[in-house]
Amino acid sequence: MIAARALKGPALVVALFALAGCYRYVPTDASIAVPGEDVRVLVTRLGAAELSEVAPGEVGAGTIEGEFQNVDADDVVLHVPVGERREGFTMVDMMQTIRVPQGEILSMERRELNKVGTGFLIGGAVALGAGIVFGIIDAFGSPTPSEGGDPPEDLLSVVFGRFSFPWGM
Questions:
Q1: What band does 1 get if pLDDT is binned at 50, 70 and 90?
Q2: pLDDT for residue 130
Q3: Sign for the pseudo-dihedral over CA of 135, 139, 143, 144
Q4: CATH code that applies to domain 25-112
Q5: Where are the domains of the chain?
Q6: Coil, helix or strand for 109?
Q7: CA pair distance 50, 53, nearest whole angstrom
Q8: What is the pLDDT of residues 47-60, one digit of tens each?
C-alpha cells in the first residue's frame, strides 16, 4: 500500500512531462501562411526525391522543415537550415532558400506555441523542484534551536543548519 502510494507522485510527474510540449503543428495553407513562420511541409515521394539533392535532412522521408518566405508562381519558397557554423562561442545556422512545387505538396503545417503543454511543463518542473526541496527537508529535518533554547543567530544558520560560512572576513 505504501509502495503504491510512493509511486503515484513520480508517475504523475513523468506523465505530465510526457504530455507536455512547447510547440505543436497546426494545418495551414500556403495562401494564408505568414512570411517568417516556421512550417513543416509534407511532399510526395517524387517531390522528396527531387528535393533530396537540394535540401538535406528529412527530405528523403518526405518532410521539410523551414521558414516560410512566400508563394512565387507555382512554387512555395522556404528558407531551410543546411548546417551550422561556429562563430566564437556561438553556433550559427547556415540557411538555404529552396522552391517546392505546389503540386508536390501534400500538406503544410505551421508551428504554434502550445500554451497548455507549456503550462504543464512549467508546472511539472515547479512541482518536481518543490518535491526535491521538501524531500531533502524531510530527510535531514529542520534545524532546531540550541540546547539553551536560544533562537539561531541569523537566517543563514536557520537555512544551512550545522554548516557555517565565513561571511565578511
A1: very low
A2: 87
A3: positive
A4: 2.30.30
A5: 25-112
A6: strand
A7: 6
A8: 888 877 776 666 66
